[in-house]
Amino acid sequence: MKQEVSKKEVLIGAIVAVFLIAVIPGLNAFTPAGSSLHVSDFNINLWGQYLCLAIVAVSIDLLWGYTGLLSLGQMLFFSLGGYALGMHLMLMIGKLGQYKSDLPDFMVFLGYTKLPAHWEPFAHFGFAAFAVLWVPGVVAFIFGYLAFRSRIRGVYFSILTQALTYAACLLFFRNELTLGGNNGFTDFKTLLGFDLGTPGTQRGLYIASAVALVLVYVLCRWLTLTKFGKVQRAIRDSENRVLFSGYAAANFKLFVFVLAGMIAGLAGALYVPQVGIINPSQMEPAKSLEAIVWVAVGGRASLIGPIIGAIGVNGLKSWASQAFPAYWPIFLGAMFVVVVLFMPRGVVGLPAQIQEAWRRHKRAREAAAEAAAAATQVPKDSQS
Amino acid sequence: MMRPYVQRSLCLVAAMAMTFASLVQADESESSARQSAARAILASESEQAMIVQDMAANPSPILGPIFEAWQRSQVYIYEAPDGARIPFMLMPDGSGSKAVRIDNGEPLVGPNGAPVVVDEATMKPVETFAKLRRAMRSTMDLLALADPAPATRQSAILKLGMKQSPEALPILNARLAREQDKAVKNGILDAIAIINLASPDPKMQIDALNQLKKSNSVPSRELVAKMAADEKLSPKVRAAAASTLKAIDNHLFWVDFFGTMFRGVSLGSVLLVVALGLAITFGLMGVINMAHGEIMVVGGYATYLVQCIFGTGVALAPFGISVNIPGFGFDSNSGIYQSYFLFALPVAFFSAAAVGVLLERGVIQFLYRRPLESLLATWGVSLVMQQLFRLIFGPANAPVYSPAWLLGSFSVGDVIMNYNRVFVIIFAVAIVVGTSLLLAKTPVGLLIRAVMQDRTTAACMGVRTRKVNTLTFAFGSGLAGLAGAFLSQIGNIGPSTGQTYIVDSFMVVVVGGVGNLIGTVISALGIGTLDQILQTGLRNPVIGKVLVLVGIILFLQWKPSGLFATKGRGLEN
């Protein structure tokens, strides 16, 4: 019964992984700027961001596509990861800030004279890198524990996750939280001693994002192949039967929810140094819904679909929100309605869907032809 | 350098001129007041203050504008060719200003009958001195004591009392003898007591403190607190002060409490009105409509358009096409313009219901069995609608003016009640009663309830469930439209207004428990009150709101399906 990964899949996966991790940055580093093969620094940075968003999309797919949990607050965990690394980056600015103080600029502006105690450990990269995972993990654990324990499911779960990210968004807008208020964190200078402004560092971050994406993909792919993955899908399809079979569905859901939260946190941490800013607007409920769009458009329950969706929709957004700023939201919204109504399996599932429709059409035509033939045969029979 | 100042003072004079115009039929008291004002202006510096003080005996509303003009150097003296000295003031007249005689209110004319033209740059205004200005102010205070409006009288009395000058006592006592209004009478007693607090006689002080204790006089709190802490006063007085302070603080606590409750109920009513449509579409039909907020905004914009049509019309430019909507051009002070809101209500209801029908037929009817997907599809619709609003009405909030009757407030025992908050509560009660009557007492309501309780059985009994679905959704959307009309009166209507309410309204419905209206009512009022209590207690609206959301998540631990769960046999629900 164990599902195997076909050799073809491994081969294609490896080619794509090498292309993302090595070829694209190689083209950026080793080809001259005028060459037709050259990938510009701008594009490396942009693609690095897309890959981070693709990681979030994979985490949403793990939740929604494989476990049936539609979380409308996934960008909260993304932002928490981003904030955790952002705190480290803020401390690394040191005296290079506008106020030439050891404190981050916004604290000087708010009249702080001493670094708040909970900021201090973030001066160590190791701590911050660890916090990128555990902060979203702990928040997801607490919320998930409460929600799954009382069997909050379906749309109620969705609405509550939305309320959670909304509440966090309101909270992060406050200055009292000492996380920069509505301006958030920006003006980062260095990461591990590398200047964030140089193309080399950005290329490094791109490679890190690509590696993270490949690892997350492999992890999720492996997870869905195991027995755990089977229970996951069983919960999606009929949670009550899983319960009756003696599985503690709540624990499975909690594990997936926390894992997805941590993956999103990792994505956020990789995203922030590349985009250069993190602020509470990243937690607005609409952002999480937009991330759902990527998964829905790409095709859920396929792992590769969300990656295609995240890169495709964001690529389209970068272009369209420049070319037709006034019509882009209409287009995005309409695209979403069309996908939900007519393409439940997304872009990835489209060939299969067309094939099925074609087969149905053909069968209907054959049936019609048979019926017509039968109808013309009847008088023949009666003649003879 | 002079100009801006002159301009500003002209504006002030314009405001006064309106008072002026309403007093066209100059009665006797006005003319005698004018005479004495003219006399005061012409008098010598030493006499001026005395004359002004005496004028308190002969009150007339005309003195206000004259004193103001005088203090703002707008009063001049015209030397007539025959040697007479005529005081006059400048009043705005079209683009310039015209000179008006103070002694009779007529325009100032020269010997040939033509209006005298005044050059402000060269003429020297009649000056005022500190002593004179003080006299004018105290005369004005005294005049206010005789103002026909009790509220004005009361605030003037309080102001006089707070100065704690014993000279005001005879005036207040005189007024007390004549005063008819009970509330104002109490105000005078308080004012006298406040003045007596400064008296050197401990007995007077104790009497005064007892009076203030009896009337729970909030304005005197600071003074009483100071007395309670004053080491130099006798212990008896201090004890009385302490007891008065306690009584006032106790009173203040209840005022705060009822004020918070009142604000909580009115906020709850807003939530209720906003969530009621959702209680129908989500609670009864099980459809998660993320575009609910945008349907609400449709109602808000409908109200805006009705307002424009009652006024001068509006020019819109959606997609680069310019659309001019003409208006009736009613005067903004006329009763018919003021009542535009009543006409806007049905328009808001039906336009939102129409959008609801489109949404149900176009998207939702395909997704009744897939609630998560209806959530996503309607979010797509909400994105489209928000952008359409932005393209049609512009990114800024639509300027909807609240009718004048919604401004202002009244107070019940020191608890301030704003008219718009009272309106909110009345509106919520009306809309909830109307909805529940419709559901419980009409044939349509019966059909709606039948289909929502058991679709298959209803269909077997011959109910056309598809039609009822559309109708129910349209009704829920119409209620959202009413909520939008209502929000336009108390808040802003803009392209993203819907987003600010959507999370809250889902919370209200989830906490209330789907499937019934009573749960929605209780949860809306509960959340509203809790929010206000936390806001007042923490003095921080955002933390209060966050705590409310956390509280809701914890509440659902205890009651996962809300306050009033509809009990069913289905396993999945």
From TrEMBL, chain A:
Going by the UniProt record, its keywords in alphabetical order are: Cell membrane, Membrane, Transmembrane, Transmembrane helix
Q: Which GO terms describe its cellular component?
A: plasma membrane
**Localization per Swiss-Prot or TrEMBL:** Cell membrane
GO MF annotations in UniProt: branched-chain amino acid transmembrane transporter activity
The leader peptide range reads: none
The question of whether Transmembrane helix is a record keyword is answered with yes
Per the record, membrane topology reads: Multi-pass membrane protein
Give the taxonomic lineage as stored in the record.
Answer: Bacteria, Pseudomonadati, Verrucomicrobiota, Terrimicrobiia, Terrimicrobiales
* Top-rank taxon: Bacteria
Protein name per UniProt: Urea transport system permease protein
- From the record, give the transmembrane residue ranges: 9-27, 47-64, 76-97, 122-148, 155-173, 204-223, 244-271, 291-313, 325-343
